[in-house]
Fold this protein.
Amino acid sequence: MIVIGLTGGIGTGKTEVTHVLRELGAVVFESDKLAHSSYEPGTEAHRQIVRSFGEEVLSDSGFIDRKALGKIVFADPARRLELEEIVWPATRKLTLASLKDEENRGTEIVVVEVPKLFESGWDKLADAIWTVESPTGEIDKRVKDRSGLSKSEVDARVAAQLTREQRIDKADVQIVNDGTLEDLRAQILRIWESIPKTQK
C-alpha cells in the first residue's frame, strides 16, 4: 500500500483534489474529519479541550463549537499550540488505526489530507507528499465564498501554516489549481498515472 500525504494552504482546493482522487480509486482520509471524531463528547480530547478552554467552547448539545474555539486559537498562537497538543496526538492515533485497517483490506492507495502536514510531523506517515497551491486572489475568493471569514481571519489561518514556497520545497509533487475543474482533473490524472505500477 502506498500512502500519499496531501497538503496545501487554506482555500487552495484540497477538497476538489480529494474528490478526483476518490473517483480514481484512492481511499481518502481527511484529517479535519478525523480530528472532529477525536474530540466528540466522551473522549479524552473533548475533556481536555473543555478543561483548557472552558465551557464557552461547547454547543448546546455538548459538542465542541469549532467556530467559537477557532476565534480563540487563531487570535493567540500560544492557545493554538495548546489545542494542537491535544488534538494532533488523538487524530494521529485514529489515522494510524485507519491506515492499518486499509492495509489489511488490501487497499492499494490511501491519501491522507492534512492542511498542516509538515508542521504536525505527519509527513513521516507518507510515502510521497503532494501539495495543492493556488494564486492568492483565488484563495481569498474561495475562502470568502465558502466560509464567510473576514480577511483578518483568513490571514490568521494562513499565518498559522507554512508558506507556499516552504510547502513546494518540501513536497514531492505540486498540483497547481489555477484553472477550471477539468484542468485540475487532467493534471491529477497525469500525476496519478505516473505512480509506479508496482505501487498501485
